[in-house]
Write a structure and sequence with these properties.
Layout: E1 5-11, E2 21-25, E3 39-44, E4 49-60, E5 72-73, H1 82-95, H2 99-106, E6 113-121, H3 135-145, H4 149-160, H5 163-174, E7 178-186, E8 192-198, H6 213-223, E9 225-227, H7 228-235, H8 239-247, E10 251-257, H9 278-291, E11 297-303, H10 309-322, E12 326-330, H11 337-348, E13 352-355, H12 361-372, E14 378-381, E15 393-399, H13 416-427, E16 430-435, H14 440-447, E17 452-456, E18 467-472, H15 473-478, H16 487-499, E19 502-506, E20 515-518, E21 535-537, E22 542-544, E23 551-553, E24 566-569, H17 573-583, E25 589-592, H18 602-611, E26 617-620, E27 633-638, H19 652-664, E28 675-680, H20 686-693, H21 696-710, E29 717-725, H22 728-746, E30 756-769, E31 772-781, H23 785-799, E32 808-813
Parallel strand pairs: 11-16, 11-17, 12-14, 12-15, 13-14, 15-16, 18-28, 19-26, 19-27, 25-26, 27-28
Antiparallel strand pairs: 1-2, 1-4, 3-4, 3-5, 6-7, 8-9, 8-10, 20-24, 21-22, 22-23, 29-31, 29-32, 30-31
Helix pairs in contact: 1-2, 3-4, 6-7, 9-10, 19-20, 22-23
Length: 817
Amino acid sequence: MTENLAALVAVEAAAYGFDKLFSYQIPQEMLPVLKKGCRVIVPFGRSNKRVQGLVFDIIKLADRDKLKSVLSALDEMPIVTEEMFHIITYLKEHTFCTWYEAVRTVLPLGLNVDVKQAYSVCADLNTLNLDDFTPMEQTLLRLLRKSGHQAQINALLDYASIPENKKIVLSLVDKGIVQQEDILKQRVKEKTERMLQLCDRIDFTGVRLTEKQRPVVEFLEQMGCASVKEVCYYCGITEAVTRNMLEKGYLEVYQKPVEIEAVKKWAVSSPKDIVLSQAQQSVANGILKLCNTGLPQAALLYGITGSGKTQVYIKLIDAVLDAGKQAMMLVPEIALTPQMVGGFESLFGDHVAVLHSGLSVSERLRQWKRIQKGEAQIVIGTRSAVFAPCAKIGIIILDEEGEASYKSDSAPRYHAREIAALRCAEHGAVLLLGSATPSVESFYKAQKGKYHLFTLEERYSNAVLPQVTLIDLNEEEKAGNFLSCSRKLQFELSENLKNGEQSILLINRRGYRSVVQCMECKEVLECPNCDVPLTYHKANGRLMCHYCGYSHPSVNICPHCGSAYLKYLGLGTQKIENELETLFPDAHILRMDTDSTGSRLAYEQKFSDFAAGKYDIMVGTQMIAKGLDFPKVTLVGVINADQGLFSPDYRSPQRVFSLLCQVVGRSGRSEIPGRAIIQTYAPDNDVIRFAARQDYQAFYDYEISFRKGMLYPPFCDICNIGFSGLQELKTRQAADEFVSRLYQNAAGFTAGKLTMRVLGITPSPLHRMSNRYRYRVLVKCRCNEAFREILSRTAKAFLNESSHKNITLSIDINGQV
């Protein structure tokens, strides 16, 4: 007698409000092959839509149970290990995501498949008696009788694409007239760039073009071809316009292969060739001692910029590999991976695998499979690389561990540090957090003995920290200098150009001007979809919103009062670039921001060119501030250190301090001493003074005292509950109802088990974005099991109410506030 078994499946299409593991009957022919950890295709919902799922368990099924059946299995062998199941469960319970959102995060995108239905006629339509069918079925059958084979398939697809008509198609499937087949397409594609060109068969002089289509034609007539992103940026349009022009035949699209240039190798060819200083060797020995215990350990390596933390990492990884284990090296930015990968490949060869979002889907899948098969023992990547399928981890390193990019801002909202700690506990491995500016939370744990603390207080190879000068911009303006570069900075830049040395300038805002204001009515030109000022981009001559992508040609007349007295205020990377070109016409200037690095490999190429000496000055946003090593850089300038200092987020002082210290640390990393100039309107601000002195301990003492007094992490957890909707009043009311329900659910818990303080409902710092109004509730709490339980129960009840169907809910623990 065969067993009657069911699979517990996490389903891709389930919303959080009713998400659970769904039971599906396993057909007898699948019993020998279907296992826990395999992906399946299952019918879901009232329409029985075919969706992906992952089998979490196989259970015995009572005969009386009537369940839908698994339709097909996608894997012959399980692709999810027990360790990965533990991580998925952790994500589900701690980040308030659905089961399948957690599954999708753990697995590479290339493993996913798109499930589409295909229909074909499987009966002789001419022999059918139409009176046996409903009027709607008769209409479809008459249409099919008139059509050829391919036309029948197209007609059925068109019919089924409309929800009301799909029932008619499925009814004919049930009656054996139409056959339904699932088409599975794996989401794998090579690294290419979509390019657009004008259709050469069309004479556009006689074509009536819309206001948005005309600049596209003019731009492509001038350029010949361009990427989709370039067309959208320079013409101020969205991709919807290009799609419409493709449908009309005005444009042609083709895929341009993206060539990956070889990354720069390091001078040494073996990790054995690296000689550590006495301080570095002492740190390496201490951490290796932790590795040799075979127990899960956590350590913090605090080392000033240029102290040689990377050399210590290499020695540790080499020792871990010698012990037959694997190592992970996480970096906060994609921009840092080329330099890191090039060095590691020169040392470890094919043992290195790379995982980050800049790779194509197919390349990420290839790298993932290399790791899974044990062909790569070292994994380098950004946040998502923490899920790499390593079977025997010896060490996980988070470089610049205090960076905000290690925290995901979309579901599941996890922190890479927490997942890394979970994996180290599973493998008995060491978690090493490294930074010149550790997060306050991590340094606090190190001070309390929860982390082992190691320090590097001197720069490697006798290099010294740069000499830092603070410039008061108020005094510059009193002296009549209204340029973005102070007189001192201009002088130092000219000296560097004379000496053939390189300079880096930081301005953490892209665009040309950040605000356009009317001097008559004082109104600021804002995005019509968001509560933010429009930023002027000189490169395309447009006012742009950096949140929703809205774009409008620059204006000379105020749209509010009609005045011609408009003033363009503020600074951006494009303005600094333009100013430098005027001040130093012979200098080669490189601008680095998301506008100038549109393609996936642009970071790599531009940083490589700068390292090769093709540019004299690099001006950019925060992407140029961390982890990069350019020996010829002897001057760093911070255009405005005050940016971000007065943000409502309690972490803003830490972010500003870290950014300033990191960018200053790019200077003087070789034998030539470096200088740094920090320009500010608040030279007496404590955070800026600490950064100028590179004094992390003083900053930490100042910040931990503030957080303790105000009860911020690490002395509590902060839960940010967000609400967004198209109608402001209903969104606010929904937030009120959520808080009331949260209090009701909390009433049943004893005080010892549940500790929380609801701070009230407030508009989000960006109150309206993409025409959706946003409110938030901040809760100071201990994010223990009791709190997570009542929060999850409240969220599910809230989302299941029909009155909240147009409200989007988000829950983030210790994220940005």
